């Protein structure tokens, strides 16, 4: 709550919430639209891949975030995102498949630019002792919107088609741009160095590789994404084979995961304030590892509890790694460091989804999930062993936890 008492952070937070309302409504719709246009589940699934592609190339966007005023990048990104949604109003047949994929890719690029800019602006707006609370507030609301937003968007699409859903998202981007335009923040100055393409684009990767705590956190985060990619494919086997439920029951588990993510967002600032960022990454990864193992138990209570723990285990490390980057990365490189981290996670997720789809077809999920759970446990232990690198001072830990 301390971060939300800062007027300019409240303004940034409000603009982000407005944009996320539209994003959450649109989340499932491109895939559903492609399924209706082509009749192919594979074509629908490719919308996720096109969304992920810009995330894999995120360092290029990070250069833009660091070279220009972050507020300007936010406003321009929201305006361009609104324009990019306009082609969806013309989609009416199978031949328009490329439009849906193009819009999905554009939304992926928008995600990278918006959250990379927000991460940098939060650093400039919020004192270091309140960064974890600010990131927790953003992530908690984001996950909360995901509980109902996608279902409402899908319902609106079913009743009225793609146009109204696209309009909601378009208006949310325009409203967010207006709110972001009102921000008054003294931003970290951009670098004055000469432009060298390779040096500029890889600067974020060098920050990650050259900062020991961040480098250690990457191992745990990548292990989470690898296990998560497997779970994306295995969850249907868990539901149909293990629980004897129809595939649509995956939606119920997704909602439970969302509830867990909200709880994780509420708990993250306390964990970080008491133990530090790397320890929080380790704690969250350990929870996710146990959840992955629990998913292999063919019983509804175990799978439901595991789904909730999955949300907790994903959210705490995400908030901890953003806070860690904000505290350790040089101000003029924070955009590139954030997007480079996103790229590492994005590549891990894309590769693991493909590998998971192949593995699940030949190996039982009851063997795969525990094996990958142990992998994540080892990564969690590796992060925890480095906890001393980011452990807060005793006085700060006590006051930070109390304020959180």
User: Strand content of the residues, in percent?
Assistant: under 5%
Strand tally is: 0
In DSSP terms (H or I, runs of 4 or more residues), the helix count works out at 17
Radius of gyration: 21 Å
Total count of domains: 2
The CATH superfamily of the largest domain turns out to be: MFS general substrate transporter like domains
| CATH-defined architecture of the largest domain | Up-down Bundle
The span between the termini is: 7 Å
- Content-based structural category: mainly alpha
Q: Describe the oligomeric state of these chains in a short phrase.
A: single chain
Organism: Virgisporangium ochraceum
InterPro entries: MFS, MFS_dom, MFS_trans_sf
Membrane topology: Multi-pass membrane protein
Pfam family, one: MFS_1
